[in-house]
Design a protein that fits this description.
By secondary structure, the chain is an alpha/beta fold. The chain folds into two domains: 168 residues, Peroxisomal Thiolase, Chain A, domain 1 (3-Layer(aba) Sandwich); 132 residues, Peroxisomal Thiolase, Chain A, domain 1, CATH 3.40.47.10. Helices cover 33% and strands 26% of the residues. It is built from eleven helices and 14 strands. The strands form four sheets. A five-stranded mixed sheet has the order 1-7-6-4-5, with helices on both faces. It has a five-stranded mixed sheet with strand order 8-14-13-11-12, with helices on both faces.
């Protein structure tokens, strides 16, 4: 085998929906204020009895079913998350236990909002190197648990959810070379820290960085895959907010692509946002098998990672 591919995807969101009108009853805000600044209408919020690994397991089970695979077919589980409460067992081990996956290597990756694309690259490398045959790659976050619900600058942004992909060996590479990196000296621009941990960010700094520094990096990810941005059928960026997604997609130059805008109904779900949005596009038929799609994560640590994949 010379490469790897995404065999199937799946996603999961909690049942509870929090609207902008609901938030207006908690903090000094309004539906118009939120929509005009971040483009979000609703978000899904997990309950106290819905931990990160449960969200992840639901999404992973759907991806497995879509691929027609059994839990025993998986030998690597990667969970991208920054909201795990416990240090051990990690979320990947708990997902494996929930799904009945025997003897898999289980690892968590904490690269915050860029976590899924980092984890996808890690799975691609492991499969191509022979370290795994099939991997479950999951992005899952429960941002509601690290949010100050009295801070209107952050509580209007967040949502909970999970997305997953099954990655397996392939004759021809269908996951392009990753382009990843970070700006460590600006890492404090997005934070989840303290006791209890709380999400905070310097919104203007993140906006300027994302809309000015990231477009050439995303275009280079396309170049590494042997494509021009105009060749893309889809663009799935980290669903930070609509005021970042739309100008960034435009500057990349993907003029023929469907651009994911799941942030409007899901909010910022951190590491879950890319697989969640991607899975929804696939589910509703907005993308077809073999379509080239740019996945590009960015955010916490001011890290970024992007690759072009072929739609399952």
């Amino acid at each position: 085998m010379n490469g790897s591919r995404i065999a199937a995807v799946g996603h999961y969101q909690p049942a509870k929906v929090l609207t902008n009108e609901d938030l207006a009853g908690l903090v000094d805000t309004s539906d118009e204020w939120i929509r005009s600044r971040v483009g979000i209408r609703t978000r899904h919020i997990a309950g106290p009895d819905e931990p990160v690994d449960e969200l992840a397991s639901h999404a992973a089970a759907k991806a497995l079913a879509a691929a027609g695979l059994a839990p025993a077919d998986i030998d690597l589980v990667l969970v991208a998350t920054s909201t795990a409460v416990d240090r051990s067992p990690n979320m990947a081990a708990r997902v494996a236990a929930r799904l009945g996956i025997p003897q898999a290597a289980t690892m968590d990756l904490n690269v915050v909002c860029a976590g899924f694309t980092h984890a996808l690259a890690t799975a691609d490398h492991a499969v191509r190197a022979g370290g795994a045959s099939r991997a479950l790659v999951i992005g899952a976050d429960k941002m509601s648990e690290v949010t100050d619900w009295s801070d209107r600058s952050t509580c209007v942004l967040v949502g909970d959810g999970a997305g997953a992909a099954v990655v397996e060996a392939a004759d021809e590479p269908a996951i392009g070379p990753v382009l990843w990196g970070s700006v460590p000296e600006m890492g404090n621009a997005v934070r989840i820290e303290g006791t209890p941990p709380r999400f905070a960010q310097e919104g203007q700094s993140v906006y300027r960085w994302a809309t000015t520094q990231l477009p050439p990096i995303a275009r280079l990810a396309c170049e590494r895959a042997g494509l021009e941005p105009a060749d893309l059928a889809g663009v799935v960026l980290h669903q930070a907010n609509l005021r970042i997604i739309e100008p960034l997609a435009q500057k990349i130059g993907a003029v023929n692509a469907v651009v994911a805008r799941d942030v409007t109904e899901s909010g910022n779900t951190s590491a879950a946002s890319i697989p969640l949005a991607f899975s929804k596009l696939v589910e509703r038929g907005a993308l077809t098998t073999g379509d080239p799609v740019l996945l590009f994560g960015f955010g916490g640590n001011l890290s970024y990672a992007g690759q072009v994949v072929r739609c399952p």
